[in-house]
Design a protein that fits this description.
The complex is a heterodimer.
Chain A (H helix, E strand, L loop, with lengths): L12 H42 L15 H33 L6 H24 L12 H23 L8 H21 L5 H36 L6 H14 L15 H13 L1 H15 L10 H23 L2 H7 L3 H31 L6 H34 L5 H6 L2 H29 L19
Chain B lengths: L2 H26 L6 H5 L17
The chains are: A mainly alpha, B mainly alpha.
């Protein structure tokens, strides 16, 4: 921390305003670079995702080239949306929030800019390698580990910039969002570097793989998305979070319980029973942070739900936060042996994963971008209608997708467990639901494309100049 | 014991020590007191309930 640190949580308004302007200016360039990149990866990842889904209806399509076979395009989809869209936009969000919350300019913004370029280089080379058939062959870790060295350096630069900014803070307290960001900045490098070490083999490799795979969601995507929700719900409502102490309970209980969750992916596998039981227990214990967060968000919103009509940010963030509760409780139930016995190795898991990354994290991210981007480019979103279309397409798309796949997964699992039925029954039974998945995926892709087009318009400062935020004008209500 | 197992146990142990140290540090620094003050850190100018966005 600097010698001139003030350690003041509530400075006079004019000082606070000046500090916020300085914080925003310091972070502007890297944040925009992260956001621009993320939106491109969103579109790329969505196209590959829909292609992969359509292969279930048209299995003979795009089979002439090995690069366009299901195994490769599905992998590109996962990495593009998880690390490209979600990863880069979450880091951009963190870089934007931290200077505001600690009332200090971003430390050496050039480091964050270099990190963004490095992250993009890693993805371009990594996904190119996957399309060419070079992969580590591990879920969430498909990008070959020599290429992963690039993101280790990029992530290190990013962490230095953020951590040094926090070290120079002028506030006495860490707001809860700062805790989440700091934790993600420490956790992700540890799990990523560990899981990529080429020293694990056999069943221990599977254990490390799922320890990483689940923690990439729980110790990187989840804390950063919750950091955004904890920032924007109070910010837009203009009232503090209902119970700040409860928000800290949510953070620390997530910190203590989440890291053990991943092994529940290997229930029934050749692993020690105590290891799997520990993971199931930790998965159920996740009810504590989830309930703490859900109760806090809900009680903050009570009596103010009408504000959802006026703020795109609030509408997306609150929808994402509600889905966080649903997907987390679904995950806890999914980890129980009796339920897992049915849904393991079925489409149910795919539905659950999409509800987490799209329904929860991406909706919150869209809301955050609707707030942040106009402030960075000094131009309001030009169209209320496009935001409304984006919201309903995203919500309808993910709803159809998840309901279809969870239903399909349950039926598929029941069919596979019935020894009197041929295996092909478990395949045939999913067909209509896989069509519904493509329909849901199409709606999400269209919504994402609308968002990307609108994003292009606002960063290019196109359309009529507006003095009021989107949805605030009379007659603009959804 | 398998060297890989030793490594992963060491990493997890280190992570646990860091987490506990962070928790104790936070408690000693008073992070868990004056919660109402910390909750206001998101606000930096006049913001009215129900307004859609702050004005930059």
């Amino acid at each position: 921390m600097s010698a001139a640190a003030v350690y003041l949580d509530s400075p006079p308004p004019e000082v606070a305003l000046a500090e916020r302007v300085a914080a925003d200016q310091s972070a502007r360039r890297p944040v925009l670079l992260f956001f621009h990149s993320a939106v491109v990866w969103l579109v790329v990842g969505s196209v590959f995702g829909l292609l992969a889904s359509l292969k279930f209806q048209f299995p003979d399509a795009l089979t002439g080239s090995a690069a366009l076979t299901f195994g490769r395009i599905r992998t590109v989809h996962l990495n593009a949306v998880a690390y490209g869209w979600a990863g880069m936009s979450l880091i951009g969000l963190a870089v934007w929030m931290i200077p505001r919350l600690v009332r200090a300019p971003l430390y050496r913004p050039g480091l964050a800019v270099a990190a963004a370029w490095g992250w993009n280089l890693w993805l371009v080379l990594g996904l190119g390698a996957v399309l060419a058939g070079w992969t580590d062959g591990l879920e969430w870790l498909e990008i070959p580990y020599p290429i992963d060295a690039i993101v280790v350096v990029a992530g290190g630069l990013m962490a230095i910039s953020v951590l040094m900014t926090v070290a120079r803070r002028k506030t006495k307290h860490f707001y809860v969002s700062v805790w989440y960001v700091l934790a993600a900045m420490v956790w992700f490098p540890i799990i990523f570097a560990t899981a990529n070490l080429p020293i694990f083999g056999g069943v221990e490799q599977a254990a490390v793989n799922w320890w990483y795979g689940h923690n990439a969601l729980g110790l990187f995507i989840t804390p950063l998305a919750l950091a955004g929700a904890y920032y924007f719900i109070p910010k837009v409502l203009g009232r503090p979070i209902q119970s700040y102490s409860l928000s800290l309970v949510g953070f620390w209980s997530l910190a203590f319980f989440y890291s053990l969750n991943g092994i529940h992916h290997l229930i029934g596998g050749p692993l020690p029973a105590w290891l799997i039981t520990t993971s199931i227990t930790a998965s159920v214990m996740m009810v504590i942070p989830v309930a703490a967060t859900a109760v806090n968000f809900h009680t903050t919103m009570v009596g103010r739900f009408s504000a959802l009509k006026h703020s795109p940010t609030l509408r997306f963030v609150v929808a994402g936060s509600m889905i966080y509760t649903v997907v987390s409780l679904q995950g806890s139930v999914e980890a129980l042996r009796g339920f897992n016995r049915v849904v393991h190795f079925t489409q149910y898991t795919v539905g659950h994963a999409h509800l987490g990354v799209y329904g929860f994290a991406s909706l919150i991210l869209f809301g955050c971008l609707y707030f942040i981007v106009p402030r960075l480019v000094d131009w309001e979103w030009p169209s209320d209608k496009l935001i409304r279309w984006h919201f309903w397409l995203a919500l309808a798309g993910i709803s159809i997708y998840v309901i279809a796949l969870c239903t399909a997964g349950w039926l598929q699992g029941r069919a596979m467990l019935d020894a009197s039925r041929p295996f092909m029954d478990s395949v045939e039974i999913t067909k209509p639901y896989l069509v519904a998945r493509s329909v849901g995926g199409t709606l999400m892709l269209v919504g994402n494309a609308i968002f990307a087009w609108h994003y292009w318009l606002v960063v290019r400062r196109r359309g009529k100049e507006r003095l009021e935020p989107a949805w605030s004008a009379p007659g603009a209500l959804a | 014991m398998n060297p890989a197992a030793v490594y992963i146990i060491a990493i997890c142990g280190l992570g646990g020590v860091i987490a506990c140290a962070a928790f104790v540090w936070a408690a000693l620094k008073g992070e868990f007191t004056d919660a109402s003050e910390a909750a206001l850190l998101v606000f930096d100018d006049e913001e009215r309930p129900g307004e859609s966005e702050e004005q930059a």
